[in-house]
Amino acid sequence: MSGACTRPAEEPRPGLLMLEFELIDEMRDLYPDYQPASELRRLKQIGAQLRAEFEKNNFYRMLDSTRTAEAIKPVRDNYNYLHDCNGCEVDLARGLGAERVLTGWVQKVSNLILNINIEIKDTESGNTVVRKSVDIRGNTDISWQRGIAFIIRDMLEKRQGGK
After folding, report:
1. Cα–Cα distance between 71 and 144 in angstroms, integer?
2. How far apart are alpha carbons 53 and 45 in whole angstroms?
3. Which of 153, 113, 147, 146 is nearest to 133 (CA)?
């Protein structure tokens, strides 16, 4: 990927709290204990990939998300997904001093059709500043990685890093 659209290092970057990617899977509705280990591993991999690309392209000042585990637990007790919790992710990020918060999820329609989504919100206003979605074909490590690569490439082309 070209670094032509990256943010100059001397410009202040918003602090971003990136929450872990979540899986929305129709199979979970039918079988609540169903969680393929390969998909859970892929969620972590694409999260690490996205974080690394944000840092490489100087999009955000990435905050340590390990501190959020205790704060997220009560939210998880009340909501299935953090991207759909009526702004709880914004409150959580604001409490940790972040200017932006990212929620990400993979929607699995089938083993052939999946969708990777990210949403970045401003913690002061609660408004969405970046929303990306990409359809992928095939439930493989490569297809998931290519989906994240597309999101980064699109953000670079549209100069959306740091928004």
Report:
1. 28
2. 12
3. 147
Structure tokens at 61: 């000042």
Cα(96)–Cα(113) distance, integer angstroms: 36
Nearest alpha-carbon partner for 123 in 99, 103, 102:
99
Amino acid at residue number 119 = E
CATH (one of 3.40.50.1110, 3.40.50.10610, 1.25.40.10, 3.40.640.10) for 15-157: 3.40.50.10610
In which residue are the tokens 């990306």 written? 132
Please say whether the beta carbons of 130 and 156 come within 8 A: no
Mean pLDDT for all residues in the chain: 86
99: phi then psi, degrees, rounded to nearest 5: -85, -25
131 vs 71 pLDDT, higher one = 131
Buried b (16+ CB within 10 A) or exposed e, 21-49: bbbbbeeeeeeeeeeeeebeebbeebbeb
Of 26, 31, 45, 21, which is closest to residue 110 (Cα–Cα)? 26
89 neighbors 82 (Cβ within 8 angstroms):
yes
Q: Is the predicted pLDDT of residue 53 greater than 80, yes or no? A: yes
